[in-house]
């Protein structure tokens, strides 16, 4: 129940606030009901909005409530499938879920919330239109806030990383990395410089968590397969290096399975270096803390994530790691009408014997938290009691490339093909919408019958480059340059 506005009911009317008008909506079109503002279109944002539009179907139809979702992208990315998208096993379009199709009862705004003043119930929002209009950010009022902006890559002040590093957190980065790897093989195949060839065929991955290990495993598989189509490149010419600062990889699957993963990777001539850090990658040379030095044109950074910058631009309470302090009911601690879950939230794990334990910021919790959050938000609007989120971790699965994997599920350990199959079945069951499930299953089936695609489409990242060069008289002065060490065919 909202003490400022009274209980939610059909036909509820309140005075329109032009300051809080949704961008692009005529003043007369604003619903008179409560505004539920969802910041972020990832796991938590999409699933929360999806459950809310089902639970508040009547209120939405009668204008007693409206759900507004603000997100930088018009789609939700299913990140566990990024490695397979990078390796070409899955089409990039099938790794994402179009929000406008799934959230047909919600208002989707493509933009970014840059600040939140919860005391005033306002969010500062920028959109593509505000940038074009030059009017600056707008303030959007709300009644209930769901803050779920997710996380961003956690980087360290490593010299050269900003200039030469490649991330692996978004679909664009995954496809760009695929194009880049194949492009480096093209460079190595055509150069007469042995040093350039060696650097082009050396790939350094920093971070031994899910993202780093799965990306390396899938791309190594793809590159080894691709090498058969080059007359002067053999799989043994490719050098893959995994750098991990701790003494183990894949800690989520346990020490035994993590050890198996290391042995499996090393059996494929992948150089796994534990208790080692990347000290520098300036001038396309990866210098490691153990004294090693590798000339390379590829440094992939997957060494963890950190909360989105938006959290620091709010007046909501945060913990020492920058995440919002939350209650087991998924409300923000000590704050009314504010909710959070997923990477942005420090949610107590009430299933643990440790009173200070928090739920891990992973997809397994995020999807389940979103459902409970939506149920609790709807219950609060109707004056009903809230329930606590409780989910005991079922385990973890990880792919090490085609037909290889590790898993630790409900106390049982699996490796090799059974673990890889469990990885695929689990994530197929979790990817949103029947449409995506069917398309991905069809692609997996076809990939078993036909050969891999080995083409690089790096030019897609700069589609106007060729035309701009032609329009500029062939001088190339206006040709956009890709980031150093990155994706387009002009990066050579």
From TrEMBL:
SUPFAM superfamilies with a match to the protein in the record: FAD/NAD(P)-binding domain
Keyword check for NAD: yes
Signal peptide limits: none
Keyword Oxidoreductase: yes
InterPro entries named in the record: FAD/NAD-bd_sf (IPR036188), FAD/NAD-binding_dom (IPR023753), NDH-2 (IPR045024)
Similarity annotation: Belongs to the NADH dehydrogenase family.
Residue ranges occupied by any FAD/NAD(P)-binding domain in the UniProt entry: 35-369
Keywords: FAD, Flavoprotein, NAD, Oxidoreductase
A molecular function (GO) term: NADH dehydrogenase activity
Enzyme category, top tier: oxidoreductase
Region described as Disordered: 1-27, 465-492
Protein's recorded name: NADH dehydrogenase
Record-listed E.C. numbers: 1.6.99.3
